[in-house]
Each structure stands twice: as C-alpha cells, then as structure tokens.
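Hi R.,

Here's the chain you asked about this morning:
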Amino acid sequence: MTREREERLALLTRLEWLRLLGVDALPRGRADAASRREPPLTAVVPGDTARGAAVPGGTIRQRGTGVGARAPAGHAASARPVVQAGLFGGSVEVEGAGTARVRGRDRGAEPAGSPLASVRAPEAPDPAAALRLIREEIGDCTRCGLCRKRTHIVFGVGSASARLMFVGEGPGADEDLKGEPFVGRAGQLLTKIIESMGLKREEVYIANVVKCRPPENRTPLPDEIGTCSPFLFQQVQAIRPRVLVCLGTPAAQTVLGTRETITRLRGSFHDQDGIRIMPTFHPAYLLRNPAAKREVWDDMKKVMAELKASG
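And here is the predicted structure, written out as tokens:
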C-alpha cells in the first residue's frame, strides 16, 4: 500500500468516526472563512492534527474501513490545531491559550446512534484473546500528541470476563509510571469502593478513555478522545460487562455520546447496546469533596442490585 493510500484510509477512518459521533460538517477553510470575513481556519480530523488535514467539500459522506487506523510514521501531532472537530457536534475554535468556543449544534444536542454500538471487538475465541488483539493493534501508539510525553501506554487491567467495568478519563502520573489504571490516591479510593461492594479489584475490569497521560493531568482534548476512544469501545465490546460505571464527566460523555454533565447523568442507568451504564463522580472528585461519597455509594448500591438481579 502506498503512503498516499495509507494517509487517505487514515483520514477516512477519522471522518467516519466523526460521522458516527454526529458531526455533520466541518469548516471548509479559506472559502468559508472569507464568506464570514474571518481569518482562514483549517479543519482538522482527530489523530491527524500534525498534518492539519483539510476536509474537501466540508460535508462528511465517506465511510471508513476500520477503527483507530494507525497514522503513518513521523506524523505524530506536534502543535495544537486552530480548529478541532467537536466530539459531539460542531467544532471547537481554540483561541490561543484562552478558552474554547463551541460552534455548530446547540448544547445538549445528541449524535445519531450510540458511539459504543458503532464499534465491535475483533474476532477472537474468547474475551481475553480479543483484548490481546486490541492491545497489539494499539502497538507503540503515535496516533496523537499524547504519545510524546508518556512513559507507558495504560491499556487496562482486570478480568476479561468481568460483569462490572469501570472507565475513567485518562491516566495520571502514578498510572503513567506503572502502566496500570487507577493506582494513585484516586485509584486506592476506587479499590476501597470495589471492595465495599463485596468484590475484589481483579474481579472487575478498569480502563480509561485515553491510554496516555494528558500533560499536567488536563482533560483530554476532543481529537485525543476521538482517536483513542474506539479502542476503549472495543475493550467494552470484548468484555461485554453487565454494568459499566463511568467515572466523571469525560468518561460519561464519551460512552453515552452526550454533552450532559455528570451531575445530570449520575444516579440513573443509561442503556447502550445491551450494556447498563451508570455514570458517577470520579474518585479524584471525592478526594476533593468527601461529602459526595454518599451519592457515589447510592449509585454503587444500584449497581450491586442490578448485578444481583441479573444473576
């Protein structure tokens, strides 16, 4: 396969992923900018920020051929894009080091279809084998800029046949050093929560939306989530837990394909592709706000009841 064709397939894969997340169109660069009498903007696709790949025609109509296609060597992101595709519709205009503006759909608009349902696990004889294939596909990943400062890729840990799965937003400093999710102070609290539910840490599965630590533990950017989340969805589909607990707003928004915050989402189950999703507060939030532990425990009691009812 030629390098040009590899780049085209990678671009089409990103476009398909954006389409599944409900992004109907992207800025067309100079033509659109001129019509608005604004400086030219370049449309960027998650995972292709180094190339600043322009999207011809603006409207996404192509279908990709796979999930998380690997970008060619030497094309890791090297600069923050001027315009990033919004994860759940519209686009995010980054104004230097300031705050971002969201353009496009109104806040709260939902994408068409479930992001989780759009992905399938690789064919394998059992969940453990499927997880190994997913990890092999990730490889020594350079698909986004998070690769530049990471120590380890933090894939996931736990039982491949778990009935309960926890998902956070990304690794922190301790996780980056050890290569295992939730091993710092927040992870120790999560372990206590799991044990209070009558389970052992090795009986559940724990993963994150992104596999590499964001600098200074910042929230992952939309292009980073768009590049890495298909691998999380493959993990979920390989394991097929009865209940998936999303820890914090980024995890809940990514899995559910919504813009609602965790305070609106927590406390109730949300069904996605036959899996019951329970959003709740992140353990790191509980360390800063101990009073919220009561609400998380209320959520976990609902999870325990669901697991018991389902056998």
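One quick note: The first strand starts at residue 83 and ends at 85.

Cheers,
M.
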